[in-house]
Amino acid sequence: MNYWLMKSEPDAFSIDDLKRKKQEAWDGVRNYQARNFMRDGMRPGDRVFFYHSNCAVPGIVGIAEVATDAYPDPSQFDPKSHYFDPASTRDKPRWMLVEVKFVKKLKRTISLYELKSDPALEGMPLVRKGNRLSVMPVEAADWKYILAME
DNA sequence: GCCAACGTTGGC
DNA sequence: GCCAACGTTGGC
């Protein structure tokens, strides 16, 4: 089993939205590295830190689970969608998604500030300067360490 | 709202 | 294939 971190802007889709909907297709990823993690790395059962970005207190707010293998993101074919990609075809879809399901909400937000402040976590891609990846792997040791911070 | 850090695009 | 211009992400 592998561990991941996925970012979402709470204004667009928050951990509470996932809790209410139970499961959600993670559409709109338009970055090749992030796509590759979903397509090649993720398997059903993998665990995911749900991260709130672009908000007052960015940080990890909950846990989700990968619910499906990757499949083509339907929004890339929809001309009305914000995520429409005219260069993508159904024969050779460019963008993939996985569905994730709600596991739990953390009792508190483990903030980016805290994660950055802890020398034990300085190897995490999340805390590296300028990192903009919205989907990234988490080391098993870091996963356990962060859970213990809750 | 600003802007640094990236990723992508397209002219050449 | 280089790289300038542009667009986006996301912390602050």
From TrEMBL:
Pfam assignment, any one: EVE
Keywords: Phosphoprotein
Domain EVE: start-end pairs: 2-149
Name this protein carries in UniProt: EVE domain-containing protein
CDD domains documented for this protein: EVE
Phosphoprotein in keyword set: yes
Species of provenance: Rhodanobacter fulvus Jip2
